Amino acid sequence: MAISEGKARAQQVGSQLRDRTAGLAGHVREQAEHVREQAGHVREQAAHAVRAAQEKAPEQLLEKTAQAKEHLAGAAATVATTVQNNTPDHVRETAEQAARTARRNRGPMAAAGVAAFVVVLVARRRSRRGKR
């Protein structure tokens, strides 16, 4: 009896760890996406500033714009590196494995996403009907 209780406890702990890892991986993905979005905005602003400077500005302003662009690109890279360095190894490995699996299985992943969306819609519809 004690062995089966130990197995059950080990399975429970394993399940909890998988759940935590999945939650952390999701959080890391969200942070990475946020960093990517910020880097995209920074690049857009820098590109806009460069275009505006090239259209009107004297040589000195062009130099300052180029320096600002380099600085912003460096800052974006620093933020990305900081997020990567502060992410626990097991979470990073799990996220990388999930990304590789998703890239290899895009069709099934898209189908799973659509199925999850449909389940949510059906659940919402049923819950609204129950409130009437």
UniProtKB/TrEMBL annotation:
Region annotation Disordered: where it falls in the sequence: 37-57
Residues spanning the membrane: 107-123
Biased amino acid composition, Basic and acidic residues: 37-46
UniProt keyword annotations, A-Z: Membrane, Transmembrane, Transmembrane helix
Highest taxon of the lineage: Bacteria
Protein name per Swiss-Prot or TrEMBL: DUF3618 domain-containing protein
